[in-house]
Amino acid sequence: MADDPAKRHSLDDLLKVMARLRDPCSGCPWDLEQSFTTIAPYTIEEAYEVADAISREDMDALKDELGDLLLQVVYHAQLASEQSRFDFADVTDAITSKMIRRHPHVFKDPGLRDEFVSSDLWQRIKDEEKSERDGGRQGSRLLDVPLPLPALTRAVKLQKRAAEVGFDWPSLAPVLAKAEEEIAELKAAIADAPKADKDGPAKRVAEEFGDLLFVMANLARHLGVDPEAALRDANAKFVRRFQSIETALAAEGRRPEDSSLEEMDQLWDEAKAAEPKD
Length: 278
What we know:
The chain is mainly alpha-helical. It is 68% helix and 0% strand.
């Protein structure tokens, strides 16, 4: 299948390319070695690269990254097809049916529009689907929160699921109080812990630190803040300001390791002051 630069490729072309890559006789040796397990990390990575392109508002990159993410779906579907489990058409059929089923106010009864907006109709439909899949058995409502999610995102989803049945603080104030309590407990654990050895900090310190992060995720949920996005923005801010330090020192023929902490702090403050105020 020679590529024609003048041709505008379709989804069907992509499916054919993937099938060719996985052809046992003439396919790519690397692709033939892959499995669901080995491809899964790439799937996660591509989703993050989509998010990165969106955060940078880079539409050209977003176009490419969405293609890379689509390839992951095609790849998994091809693997499943080879095992006679399902194929790409089954994937598209399943998601289309799900979207129609979960939007009854659009595809069935417009009178449900207000209920959909003001209530948890989406979640109720989702729970009914899960109950049908499980044969009506009642399991923990937390079990459908995927383990591979980033820990902060999973913490928010776990807390949200518990909050749906009333297991939640009624306002922001007790969440802030809990955060202060966890900070105090972390300080106490640090004070009581022996010096860190080659295996890392004492177990209690790590546990208290985890508790604090969990509460901060809950605080983000109550504030309506995406903790992953907030941390990504904080990372970007740190990179931007530290690079300003490096640039300023380079103009003097120096590197950060050639300067003092006091100098770098001063340059950090200058970089911060130079940033536009929202």
